[in-house]
Write a structure and sequence with these properties.
The protein is built from 24 helices and 19 strands. By secondary structure, it is α+β, with helices and mostly antiparallel strands. The strands form eight sheets. Strands 1, 2, 3 and 6 form a four-stranded antiparallel beta sheet that branches. A three-stranded antiparallel beta sheet has the order 13-14-15. The protein has a two-stranded antiparallel sheet with strand order 4-5. Helix 17 crosses helix 21. The protein starts with 8 loop residues before the first strand and ends in a 5-residue tail after the last helix.
Length: 653
């Protein structure tokens, strides 16, 4: 009998008698043979339009004496009885096989095995749901390959946790890639190298690892409903027409269950107080400022990171809110610290009481107001001393939140000399760019002068379409297109030294929202002129008009007072000089191109991928003496870039 096939569990149909007429619902019970856990009853739903069970899937009912030895014995015609028993046997067999390899399960996971995930949508009314946390186990294939390609110098050539590793063995890659190339050739198609790499990555993940249920976590219904209301299927550029791909291979890196677990974790954090959040160490450990805030709270073992860290922490938060430096822990170094002190000793601080203020929940514009105070020599020395003590605590072996700092580079003289304070900008980044918080500010800003609103939108579109040059923003060069899936993307031509490339980029949250204000049309201006290269660009007068309106907009906001480096010709000496100037005095369309690349980099897009968005000829080696060439087709592969948007979740904050 099938029900006896599993050595750990009894899997058999039973009748749960609840009906007044003596009939009961038929369930399949999965019970531990050693009674180590309560039994799980799986509801039996049948769908047979040829018998009495019409109208789709229904619960199956019998009298007690009509189910003998786990088989339907009477109550229907012989033909129907055979049909019902076949369905029961099929369900029982599926559960037996599942419980042989998955020792952790519940009613919902077992119902999903029989009926599929869609069946569970009927149970949204439940207050909670259990989802599976899976562990990843190496297959025999990967174990054997590791003997051939061992880890050396800390580099694992078979690591597939992140983007496809550059050190991956070419022989293994070619063996897997060959089948996709053969299938594409038979269909008369060409697979782009990036798509081929992704196909191989997915196939190898399927071949290298088994994913088994480790435990079950409970998810709130409101989290599940929020996910299903907002979740959009991942756009799969890999599922190319004419190239059959196994469903399990083409799945997203993160399953629905893993998304739900992440959402539940965020929901749990929102319910916690700041003290509880830091005590349980659930804060963002990749954020420099949250690592410093952690010093104000006790850890789970009751220890305090540092003594009286409050003052310097609030100085750091002032620096973050007024300047917006990098917050990534991996970028925390001596130069970052020096820039902080240069800002603090030049700009001063607000003397106020922070008692009762939550460092994770406050409004910056209400916080940093009033009279400023400035540091004298002794205060500077004590501030540097307290900062060093705090960083040493946060970088210790016990805590390990921040990287270690070379204090020889932060001596009193190097940090506090008047010359250095006057000559170094108060932020590490002196490129002509707007940081993402500044872009978000502009995006949400409502212009007091209504005529400037459209110029603000044009500037943001220059950034979000791909860091366009202003002469490329014209109706002859730039257009919106729609692919076969109904997804919109923008297409434009760009050039450097008369080498023209066609670039296709997906729309994102910024550009989609702005285009919605203009009925889905790009708000062009000016008349494009034809060039000797048979392309079009805006006239100089129109370009100058754009820069003029942009500066009027920036001055109106009153936000962009910080200085950046700029090269200008001295009127007296007629020489090119480098100086620092407020953004509102020198901002131009050039900021759009620089800002786009910087924003992608800060959002985690690989430096090897950024040129595909902007049309640059140099890849990740730009600025490092390395050159990476791209196929023309890769600039047009907007589907790959759409996936990057969705992975990084690039949207206003």
């Amino acid at each position: 009998m099938i029900a006896k096939a599993n050595k750990d569990f009894r899997v058999q149909p039973i009748i749960d008698r609840q009906q007044k007429d003596g009939r009961g619902y038929v369930n399949i019970r999965v019970a531990s043979r050693k009674n180590e856990r309560p039994p799980v009853d799986v509801s039996v739903y049948l769908n047979d339009k040829n018998v009495a069970l019409t109208g789709g899937e229904r619960r199956f009912k019998l009298r007690k004496n009509q189910l003998v030895d786990q088989k339907v014995h009477s109550g229907f015609s012989p033909v129907v009885i055979d049909s019902l028993n076949d369905q029961l046997d099929e369900m029982t067999t599926k559960l037996v096989r599942y419980t042989e390899t998955n020792k952790v399960f519940n009613k919902e996971s077992l119902e999903s095995v029989i009926y599929g995930d869609q069946f569970l949508t009927a149970h949204k009314s439940r207050r909670t749901k259990e989802v599976a946390v899976r562990e990843r186990l190496e297959t025999e294939l990967l174990t054997n390959l590791r003997k051939r390609y061992p880890v050396r110098n800390g580099i694992d050539p078979l690591d597939l946790d992140h983007d496809f590793p550059a050190s991956f063995p070419k022989l293994v890659f070619d063996q897997v890639a060959r089948k996709f190339q053969t299938q594409a050739k038979e269909e008369g198609r060409i697979i782009h190298p990036i798509n081929l790499q992704q196909l191989v990555w997915l196939e190898l993940n399927h071949l290298f690892y088994d994913h088994r249920v480790k435990k079950l976590e409970r998810i709130d219904t409101e989290v599940i409903n929020d996910y299903e209301r907002n979740h959009k299927p991942v756009y799969k550029p890999l599922n190319l027409p004419g190239i059959p791909i196994k469903l399990e291979v083409a799945e997203s890196k993160y399953s629905k269950d893993e998304h739900l677990l992440l959402l539940q974790e965020k929901a749990n954090r929102r319910k916690m107080s700041t003290a509880e959040l830091f005590e349980k160490q659930l804060f963002n450990k990749e954020n420099i400022f949250e690592c410093f805030i952690a010093a104000r709270f006790k850890l789970a073992d009751g220890t305090q990171v540092a003594d009286k860290p409050a003052a310097i922490v609030w100085r750091l938060l002032q620096y973050r809110d007024e300047i917006g430096p990098s917050s990534l822990v991996k970028e925390f170094n001596e130069e970052w610290c020096k820039a902080f002190f240069n800002y603090l000793f030049k700009e001063g601080y607000y003397k106020k009481s922070f008692k009762g203020i939550d460092p994770m929940q406050y409004r910056p514009k209400d916080m940093w107001t009033g009279e400023k105070y400035y540091y004298d020599s002794s205060m500077k020395e004590s501030t540097v001393k307290n900062f060093k003590r705090l960083v040493t605590s946060l970088s210790s072996k016990k805590v390990g939140l921040l990287p270690k700092i070379d204090w020889d580079e932060l001596t009193r003289d190097k940090v506090m000399t008047k010359t250095e304070i006057m000559n170094i900008d108060p932020i590490p980044q002196d490129e002509q760019i707007l940081e993402k918080p500044e872009i978000d500010f502009l995006f949400k800003y409502g212009c007091k002068n209504p005529d400037l609103e459209i110029w603000k939108d044009r500037f943001l579109l220059l950034i979000m379409f791909g860091g366009l040059r202003i002469n490329e923003f014209n109706s002859k060069n730039l257009e919106l297109r729609t692919d076969g899936h109904g997804e919109q993307y923008v297409n434009f031509k760009t050039s450097k030294q008369s080498v023209w490339k066609e670039v296709s980029n997906p729309l994102n949250a910024y550009s989609s929202a702005i285009l919605g204000k203009y009925d889905g049309q790009i708000p062009f201006f000016g008349e494009p002129t034809k060039t000797k290269h048979e392309t079009y660009q805006l006239r100089k007068t129109d370009q100058n008009l754009f820069n003029q309106k942009l500066r009027e907009l920036i001055v109106e906001t009153g936000r962009f007072k910080r200085k950046v480096k700029d090269k200008q010709i001295n009127d007296e000496s007629k020489r090119l000089e480098v100086g620092s100037h407020p953004i509102e005095e020198i901002i131009s369309s050039l900021f759009a191109r620089h800002s786009f690349s910087s924003m992608l980099r800060k959002c985690g897009v690989s430096v090897d991928d950024i040129p595909l968005f902007t049309g640059h000829s140099l890849g990740g080696g730009a600025g490092r003496g390395e050159v990476k060439r791209y196929l023309i087709s890769q600039y047009k592969d907007y589907t790959y870039k759409r996936q990057k948007w969705e992975e990084r979740n690039i949207k206003p904050e």
